[in-house]
């Protein structure tokens, strides 16, 4: 049961898929360095390995440095393009930390105008943030921009309470995105609000947008109502 903007399963427009291809021997070290930066968080020591085993990751560098390396190597340049997709060099910073900015949030309602949700600077809207009709169909759409570096495993978590009791909790993976000037658009599947006397009333919720490293990009604490009529 989904009760707030953090609905369950989702599909993404412009989601960047990173396909790995076999590398030539003379460029394997460079490619390993770039791939390692994107997948460090997935490295783990297996049960069969020594608990004291250490993984030497070697020096890291920014995405801009990676893009500028070996520009004259045609094979390596094509491989980076396949791995990274179209990267706007103007959106790439000098830091290894990616930046994700949520630009807009909206609730699309069947047969009615969208509810545009203003994003407060402090993440805490004043008063009631929105109202939904019981038994109505809706979906969430949001846009965001990625800069500085690749954001790996962008996801959101959402928790909903009613009269102090947790009634819904969900985590959903959005995807991995490269920096670019054009915003990304993400749409959730259509959902239906619950209905009935016990479903109606006031709810409180907390939605977070994080990445694989649990870096928090936005946290919103808000209230909403489900009512019998709009």
Biggest sheet character: 6 strands, antiparallel
Strand content: 35-45%
Shape, per Cα inertia axes: elongated
Helix fraction, binned, reads 10-25%
**String of helices and strands:** EHHHEEEEEEEEEE
Cα-to-Cα separation, first versus last residue: 20 Å
Radius of gyration, in Å, reads 21 Å
Number of helices, counting only DSSP H or I runs of 4 residues or more: 3
Rounded mean pLDDT score: 75
Which structural class do you get from the secondary structure elements?
Answer: mainly beta
Number of DSSP strand runs: 11
Unreliable runs, pLDDT <50, ≥5 residues? Answer: 6-27, 30-59
Provide an overview of this structure.
With 230 residues, the protein is mostly beta strands. The protein is 13% helix and 39% strand. It is built from three helices and eleven strands. The protein has helices spanning 28-39, 63-68, 74-84; strands at 11-12, 99-109, 112-117, 128-133, 137-147, 151-162, 165-177, 184-187, 191-192, 201-210, 216-227. The strands form two sheets. Strands 1, 2, 3, 5, 8 and 9 form a six-stranded antiparallel sheet that branches. The protein has a five-stranded mixed sheet with strand order 4-11-10-6-7, with no helix packed on it. Strand 10 (201-210) and strand 11 form a beta hairpin. The longest helix has 12 residues, at 28-39. The radius of gyration is 21 Å and the shape is elongated. The two termini are 20 Å apart. Residues 6-27 and 30-59 have low confidence and may be disordered.
List the helices and strands and how they pair.
Layout: E1 11-12, H1 28-39, H2 63-68, H3 74-84, E2 99-109, E3 112-117, E4 128-133, E5 137-147, E6 151-162, E7 165-177, E8 184-187, E9 191-192, E10 201-210, E11 216-227
Parallel strand pairs: 4-11
Antiparallel strand pairs: 1-8, 2-3, 2-5, 5-8, 5-9, 6-7, 6-10, 10-11
